[in-house]
Amino acid sequence: MGKLRQLLITLGVLLVFGGCSRYDYTLRKPVVKFQTPSKKALSSMLRESNNKRYRWAEEGPHSFDCSGFVYYNYGSMNLWLPRRAIEQARYGKTIPMSQLRYGDLIFFDTRKYSRGKINHVGIYIGKNRFRHASSRKKRIITTSLNKAYYKKRVVICKRVIPQKKYKKPFKIVAKAPKPVPIAKVKEIEEPVLSEQNNSIYIDRPLIGIDESTIEETLKEEPKKEPKESVMGSPESFISKPIAQEANSTKHTNLY
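Below the sequence we write its predicted structure tokens.
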């Protein structure tokens, strides 16, 4: 009887402490307060979370852990990142520490023996400082990167907020090519059939020919004098009339 009683007590204790977890792992998405992420929006969000307490596995709005702090602030700007720090580090553009800008994420390995495995994250706010949920201080604090403890434990830096601002959405419009001007062409009248000899003639000149310019060019061209033909050259034979050549060659009838 005593053993049964002890067993029941043990089972009761296990049910009480096993069923009630110390931490709440339910993921709660923040309310979107800004439709697009920006420096101004993030600055407003960070002011709201000033001096709020640290609590493991919480993502706000009253308490945070380090990755929950990032998840809450960026989710409020409609920029959704994973919940865990190691998964958040897989997103965005990798940048060196010398090029950090407001809103960039800095990932650390804060273990005693650092091996480059990410377990902490903070938000860069300029002037070599970052905001984060500190498990040591138990609240949201601002820390300098000049501190040797954090500076030597930086694993990677990421940029997730777009830097360019566009007032209007992109609209790709294909511009139609300008029409090529077409030269005016005079209409040509149809050929007229002659009644006398059934020949075809055109009453007007061809397109693009000016009669006046033709007459001027004919007047300007000087008349070329015929060249003297040299005996034995092809021109001498061509210039002789056929009748003269026929008279000059007479043959006697030998029969």
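The chain is about 25% helix and 15% strand.
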